[in-house]
Amino acid sequence: MAATPIKSNQALLARSLAAVWHPCTQMKRHETLPLVPISHGNGVWLYDQEGKRYLDAVSSWWVNLFGHCNPRINAAITDQLGKLEHVMLAGFTHEPVVQLSERLAQLAPDGLGHCFYASDGASAVEIALKMSAHYWRNAGKPEKTQFISLQNSYHGETLGALSVTDVALFKDAYGPMLKQNATVLNPDSRNAAIGENAHDYALRCAAQLESHLQQHHRQLAALIIEPLVQGAAGMAMYHPVYLSRARELCEEYGVHLIADEIAVGMGRTGTMFACEQGEITPDFLCLSKGITGGYLPLSVVMTTNKIYQAFYADDVTRGFLHSHSYTGNPLACRAALATLEIFATEDVLNTNRIKAAYMNRIADSLRKHPKVKHFRNRGMIWAFEVETPHADFAQRCFSLALQHEILLRPMGNTVYFMPPYVISEAEMDILVTRALQVIDQLV
Q1: Which domains does the chain have, with CATH numbers?
Q2: pTM of whole model > 0.90?
C-alpha cells in the first residue's frame, strides 16, 4: 500500500505524534511544544510544509557541513544508486569503501592507516573500547579492561559508550546496567582559578590525570577524550596542551588514547581533525556526524598498524569480534568521498577561518551583552552562557528562536552556534541579530 502524501503542517504533526517516538524527548512535552514539521532544505535553511524557513544554526545535531540538498553530494549518491546500494563487508569489498579508507589515511595524523566502519558515533565508541580491551587481551594483559574519561564527558548512549559518559541524566537512568569507569578533572577553561590562564589550567588537569595513571595504569585499557571541545558538556573548550600532555602520559603508562572526534572532527574546530592542534596521533580516532556531510549514517574508527597486527592471526578468537549489517555502506561512503572532495577543491578550512573572523566581529554585541558570560569560539563553534531566572530557559529559547526563523538548541543556559560551513556573511548577520533579539526578550 502506497504511503499517503502529507500536504500540511498540522497533518504531518498529528501523524508523527501518533506513530513516531522521537529521540531524547519527553513526548508529553509536545502537547504544548509542537514538533517542527520540515518539508525540505536548501543551504543553511530548512522549510516547513507551508514555506516558513529556519536557519539551521546547529547543523541538524552537528552533522551538516555543506548545506542541505548539496548538489555535489546529491550527484555522488545518485551516481552510486545506479551501481551498488549495499553489499556486506564480511568477505566482500567495494570501490567506495577502499577509496574512502585510503583518503582518510592520507588526511589523518600519521600512522592511522586502518579503518573499521559502523553506522553512528556511539557505535564507533563501542568499537574503540572493545578494540582497546581486546588488544590488551591479545597482548597478554587481560587485566587491562577499565577506562577513564573526562568529567562531564559525553560519548554516546549505547551501554559501552554510556559507561564512559559523565552526564547525570543518563547515569541516573541507566547506571545499574553500566560498567563503572572513573573520570578525571575536566580541563574546561571556564573552571580555571582567578589569574590562571587556560594553558596553565590544562596542565593542572593533566597533572591530576598523571596521578590517576600512576595508581591505576595496570588495569586501564584507554583514556577517551573529546579533543578541544566537549560538546554535550555545554561546548566546554580547553587548551591543546592538554592533548599533548595526555598523549605523553598515555605513552608513558601504557594506556591507549581514544580521540572521540565524532562532533569535533571534519574541520569543525579549525583543523581537519582537532587532535592536530595538540600535534598528536591517538591510538584510535573516532569519526562520524559530518563525515558524510550530514547525509547518511556512517562512522569509522581509525587505528594504527601496531594495534591491527595484534589481531592478525590464524586463531579466530584473536580476530576483532564485531560487526554491523551496514558496515561500509557504498552510498554512505560515496557521500563521504564527495564531502572530502569539497574540502579538497574549495579551500574549506581557510574559508572557514575567514568566516569565523567575520562572525567574531559581528558577535561583539553578544559578547558585551550584560547577561552573556563566557563567550567563546573554536573554529566553527561558538558558545556562551546566559544569566537567566528561567529553569526552562532552553525550551523557551528554542521556541522563541523559531519565531525569529532560527533553529537554536540550547543545553541548559548555554547557547551555541554550529552552522553549516556554507553559511554566508548575510546569514551570519541574521543569526547574530536574531539571537540577540531572542536573548533580550528572554532576560
Answers
A1: 36-69+347-442 (3.90.1150.10), 74-345 (3.40.640.10)
A2: yes
